[in-house]
Give the backbone structure.
Amino acid sequence: MDETNEKQVSSQKKANSNGNDKVKVGSGKPDFVRAMVAEDMKTGKWGGRVHTRFPPEPNGYLHIGHAKSICLNFGIAAEFGGKCNLRFDDTNPVKEEEEYIRSIIEDVKWLGFDWGDRLCFGSDYFEQMYEWAEQLVKAGKAYVCDLNAEETREYRGTLTRPGEESPYRNRSVEENLDLFRRMRGGEFSDGSRTLRAKIDMASDNLNMRDPVMYRILHAAHPRTGDKWCIYPMYDWAHGLEDSIEGVTHSICTLEFENHRPLYDWFLDELGVYHPQQIEFARLNLSYTVMSKRKLLQLVEEGYVKGWDDPRLPTISGMRRRGYSPASIRNFCGRIGVNKFNSTVDIALLEHCVREDLNKSSPRVMSVLRPLKVIIDNYPQGQVEELKAINNPEDASAGMRKVPFFRELYIEQGDFMEEPPKKFYRLAPGREVRLRYAYYITCTEAIKDADGNIAELHCTYDPATRGGDSPDGRKVKATLHWVSAAHALPAEVWLYEHLFTKENPDDAAEGEDFKSNLNRNSLEVLTGCKVEPSLEGAAPLSRYQFERMGYFCVDPDSLEKRGLIFNRTATLRDTWAKIQKQQQSR
Ligand code: ATP
Ligand code: MG
């Protein structure tokens, strides 16, 4: 391996590491959550401790919204010298699967975060939760109710109609305890009874109207098997999990603000350790759906190729697309954390991705839609190794050599037989620069039987080697190219937004978000020609194809079907453009 190639390999290694060596989150200015934690540190509220958790329900893959929560929870723990648990909130056996647990672990790790030995499962606390439930029953604070789901809903009332007390509300402690134990024992059928907290059916807050704590569900759980046939409801379980783990700041999204009184009520009535629940606004992105239910639908109904389809906002989809963990963390830092729901422009995410790739990705020349060029005055059989810059943003990335040959490929779009005024690229009789190579002039365009351009004949000027003219002659365009004899065949997958509308849920009457799917979200290009230095490129390694965008080697590449690249992003940065326009106003 000569020196230039060595340098390229090392620059690629650098580019393709996760950038996780120094994980940094946040823009530096504290958000309201960090301000709250800082204040608690000052007053010594938690004895100088900071302990957060990221609590996904293993019922789907993680998405960019989860990344916001991960960066917030793990970020705060790191910044304040605290700890953050990864906790699976696995209290619903029906929708939860091992596959989701595995993917979540992989994704949080890949994002660059470490929970140490604190991988926790809500289901590990089922026994303790049950004991606490009995404690509330014994204290007359919980009762077994025989209303079915429909009746329970009816009795609960609405925002404008007060609730009605269940006819079973005033059972004796003895009867409640007996029934609750028999619920656990498996005597009753699914849905026939619940355990409910005895709070206040007249409360303005619907969550406080005797919420259900346990339901009967004869279903095997991935971790506890058949041990349980009653399962705790989210509101009951979540605070207990936080309490057991000694969490200080229980950070969740805004829709749980109305649940906080209940979170507090359970912990106060039990008289156990009581973390502080704090709510922040969830992330919404334009042209994106983020609900796991909708993502599942897209996956199961085959609208995309799986949870890691590069068009999805899932972490695994973004990884496959070529987004780096650093760019996702950077994005999460830039959007900040606040109390008001809003929608972030997806162009900002793409901007963060480009910013990172611009600095880190090696440049190569690849032709996506090839047009053959024959340099008639170039010696038959000759090959020249021309020097090319690996990354103009990173001098340490060095140079590499690209082979120049009599037959080349350029992009079909870089030639026009009858160019309009502002088209400066190749045309009959016109001279352009081939990057790192020579000036060439088109002498003839050969057409096939259908009248399409089949190949071009050109001449080159040997005095312009390297791409500069000694006589100062100017050309208006520089094209990328590959040697026809040396280029590798490849398949390239181009992506557009998955939805055509900024808000995919804005659908016509009787339609749903799927009616806004973009039918052009994937374009598969076969017969592409990529620079020979890409031979053996590792899955998930990232490159800039000069003038064509950023690309990432698909993991299905190579062994199965030859090189496949996903386009991570185009070079057009709409976010930077918007910023510029705003500044100039
Ligand atoms: P969904 O409602 O789509 O099922 P979820 O919020 O129920 O999503 P969980 O697995 O419970 O999914 O989420 C784990 C954590 O991630 C929670 O603390 C939740 O608040 C947070 N989270 C989920 N979606 C977002 C989002 N879009 N923005 C910020 N945080 C989010
Ligand atoms: Mg949830």
Observations:
- Confidence is low (pLDDT under 50) at residues 1-17.
- The longest strand covers residues 439-447.
- The CA atoms of residues 29 and 35 lie 10 Å apart.
- The two ends are 53 Å apart (CA to CA).
